[in-house]
Amino acid sequence: MFKLPILDILHRGVVLSLVGLSAYGIVASFAVHKDTLQRGRGTMCPIVIAFQSLMLTTFLRADGT
After folding, report:
1. Topology with regard to the membrane (predicted)?
2. How is the chain split into domains, by residue range?
3. What is the pLDDT of residue 64?
């Protein structure tokens, strides 16, 4: 049977741990991003709402309605 040196085993353990941690980070960040978008749906900054209503009334006046 082939024997691996201790440093090689430690290196493989560190690399696999970092790969697993990176995968966990990617999945967790996607889940948080999705949750943030879902919680923010339907709520807007008051400045954005005011700007949208201003633009809407400006375009309605320009059309003559």
Report:
1. Single-pass membrane protein
2. 8-63
3. 56
